[in-house]
Design a protein that fits this description.
Number of strands: 4
CATH topology of the largest domain: Glutathione S-transferase Yfyf (Class Pi), Chain A, domain 2
Bound molecules: glutathione
Helix content: 40-55%
Radius of gyration: 17 Å
Distance between the termini: 36 Å
Shape: globular
CATH class of the largest domain: Mainly Alpha
Largest sheet: 4 strands, mixed
Number of domains: 2
Strand order of the largest sheet: 2-1-3-4
Amino acid sequence: MAYTLVIGTRNWSSWSLRPYVALRAAGVPFETVVIRLREKQHPTTRDQILPWSPAGKVPVLKIEEGGETITVWDSLAICETIAERHPGAGLLPADPRARALMRAYACEMHSGFADVRDQLGMEFARTLPLPELRDDTRDQVARIIASWEDALATWKGEFLFGAFSVADCMYAPVVSRFVTYGVAVPPPVQGYMERVMALPSMQAWMADSRAEVEAGLDR
Ligand SMILES: N[C@@H](CCC(=O)N[C@@H](CS)C(=O)NCC(=O)O)C(=O)O
């Protein structure tokens, strides 16, 4: 069995970060292919992604197994697949109630918070001033913080559902955005964000993002 994870420019690719932290949490070896985002010249970003996935978006996970190749696109689908294939990593909580809520958290992130994505774009290796937030963005930031506080208080662990789970993978790019723009958060949430940023996977992503920024690859 061999995994290849196709990702975008690390400083920007919030969607790519999610399966990367999931694979690292599962402790399985994988190859990484990086495609430069926002490339308008031929071959464009899309041209480069299409040979990997018909959806034309990163991330993509290729699983080579028993002479067959399975292509999984979409960050949440990849995280769920990794969680299912590596149950020992505990990325899906064992308690069915926690598992159901964990999925609600992951899906709420996946399908929502458009204004946060728009106004607080991921700039993993940078620190930037907080822009004047629109009302919708402010409401979404407040909702994210309240939901994290609730999960941390309910499950009383280091991460949202106690142990590190798919929900933390899905929210890892939001943690990075809040750090980049200095979003004010209450102490329990600050502690959570620090634990996420300290993960070896997040530290490795930071080192690679910084290298991209220094090489001008995010321009
Ligand atoms: N819902 C998808 C969205 C993936 C997505 O939008 N990826 C962006 C980069 S972060 C992309 O591939 N853009 C390609 C392009 O700009 O041509 C997922 O969760 O994987």
